[in-house]
Specification:
By secondary structure, this protein is an alpha+beta fold. It is built from seven helices and nine strands; from the N terminus they run βββαββααββααββαα. The strands form four sheets. It has a three-stranded antiparallel beta sheet, sandwiched between helices. The protein has a two-stranded antiparallel ribbon with strand order 1-9. A two-stranded antiparallel sheet has the order 2-3. The protein is globular and about 70 Å long.
């Protein structure tokens, strides 16, 4: 059952947790909630109890890193989406994958959570120097009165740098599916229009991509919001949601091949 205002859902086991049209095979692919709904409830409780996303380190210590605290998610920073993907490996054994949207306190990589759709070191090489220049331009812009030629020139320079940086970052994303295909964001979404910031950084794409490159077959998926409601009030704490609109166009390609493989396993 979907709420039209915010895409909130009351998951039923056999309802679709995500779906998308694949232009490659001209089909709509889906993935059900299945037992991922119960596992996501377990993860939600663990996050509430621990107050940290440092859940999978495997150590015996109860101390957690401040950078992994969930407290900021209930502050002005607002909350974020978390997801659980049920998979089976080549031996038919169940494997659970866990993901969070975007970065967590500037961190792309935290043990136990799936990585983004790009190589983080390569991303930093491309991103960090240009981002530093963009911030420096911002400080320089603030030193000139509005309407001055110097300010306008700096604003245009910053705009150009930002646009070029976003294009360069999008080239780093590599999406894989279960038919053995690989594509960039532009190959799936086209090159005509700009892509919204954060496209491909949500839980669904991250979880599915990791499953594909790890030769794991996805069985079910569930995503929930954790923390203070977002500014548009379309996401509330402990509520389940469908993948966001900016990432849904990726899901058809990413799910391609999974249904056929599930039939082979009898799932």
């Amino acid at each position: 059952m979907i709420n039209d205002r915010n895409d909130s859902v009351i998951p039923e086991k056999n309802s679709a947790s995500c779906s998308g049209y694949c232009s490659k095979c001209n089909k709509i692919h889906t993935l059900p909630y299945g037992t991922a709904r119960e596992k996501a409830g377990w993860l939600l409780r663990r996050l509430e109890q621990n107050g940290s996303i440092e859940l999978f380190s495997g150590g015996s210590t109860t101390e957690t890193s401040p950078t992994c605290s969930t407290e900021p998610l209930f502050s002005d920073e607002r909350g974020k989406m978390f997801g659980v993907l049920e998979c089976i490996n080549g031996s038919g054994k169940t494997v659970w994958l866990y993901g969070y949207s975007g970065q967590f306190n500037t961190q792309w990589l935290i043990p136990g959570w799936v990585p983004p759709l790009f190589d983080v070191d390569h991303f930093r090489t491309v991103h960090d120097p240009i981002e530093a220049r963009i911030k420096a331009l911002g400080r320089e812009i603030s030193s000139y009165p509005a309407g001055t030629k110097q300010r306008d020139q700096l604003v245009q320079e910053r705009k150009g740098l930002s646009q070029n940086l976003m294009r360069d970052i999008h080239k780093l994303y590599h999406l894989h599916n279960f038919a053995g295909d690989k594509a960039t964001l532009s190959e799936i979404l086209g090159t005509e229009n700009g892509k919204p910031t954060g496209t491909g950084d949500c839980c669904g794409p991250k979880l599915l991509n990791y499953a594909a490159v790890s030769n794991l077959l996805p069985i079910s998926l569930a995503e929930f919001f954790f923390g203070r409601e977002n500014r548009s009030q379309s996401r509330e704490h402990a509520q389940f949601y469908l993948p966001c609109k900016k990432c849904r166009p990726l899901l058809g390609f990413m799910l391609c091949g999974a249904e056929e493989r599930r039939l082979d396993f009898g799932t």
